[in-house]
Known about the structure:
By secondary structure, the protein is an alpha/beta fold. The longest helix has 17 residues, at 228-244. It has one domain (7-225): Aldolase class I (TIM Barrel, Alpha-Beta Barrel). An 8-stranded parallel β-barrel has the order 1-2-3-4-5-6-7-8, surrounded by 6 helices. The protein starts with 6 loop residues before the first strand and ends with a helix. The model has no long low-confidence stretch (mean pLDDT 97). 47% of the residues lie in helices and 12% in strands.
Amino acid sequence: MPTFGRLLTAMVTPMKPDGAVDYKRAAELAKHLVAAGSEGLVVSGTTGESPTLSYEEKLRLFETVVDAVGDRVAVIAGTGSYNTAETVRFSREAARTGVHGLMLVTPYYNKPPQEGLYRHFRTVAEAVELPCIPYNVPSRTSVNMLPETTLRLARDVPNIVGIKECADVGQLADILNGAPEGFRVWSGEDANLLPYLTVGAYGIISVAAHVVGPQMRELIDAFLKGDTAQAAAWHRRLLPVFRGLFAVTNPILVKAALKLTGFPVGPVRLPLVDATEEQEEALRQVLAQADVL
């Protein structure tokens, strides 16, 4: 199994002005993020606007990013959905593009019970040979995968190698208390990076790393060296950026932030809408105060 890094970025999907996927810009963005410290990229996750991408667009994105940076960092394909059979089918197709792993969001809308979550993830993981990372994000899916379910998967399914977790630190502690050796937990929320690290998480799958990747790398490195004061200082400095990027639905403002920092990636797709002038100005002030601009 490949070793995924501590700082991974959930990559936006660049779009042309007409809303078509800009694959050339996607390759450029992937290289830009790696140069800024990302040790892996998640392609076609929530931040990548996966609900509005076709399977064909996703597969081409996976191939594009693998070609651009797959020899240097892990490329993880977002293939999860609320349809187990379709997730199996698409995950098998994604595996043929050369990606190094799969991210599987907790099924949304149909709100399965814990046994359904367990069977869903186990069915998908056993259908592929790639390492799989479930993604538990209750604020998006309206269902919370409990620690006991996560731990069953960690023990029973060898290629479920970790989880992207967005629950509170108490749930994180419960997972880590029972996790088998080598099972990784990544924070799914930028603002929780340092609190998660202090409890024992491995790293983060980040949105903010699009614009503050080097700073987040400094935070992680300071913590790992035992310099908790420096890590805390970075956390306090970056917290307004973390909050500012999520003032409206992600990825609206991270795309605006990339434009403000000189790396435009085009618009979002409906039903999302681009940032208003007022939202963009508020974000500009946040980035300026954090010395990002």
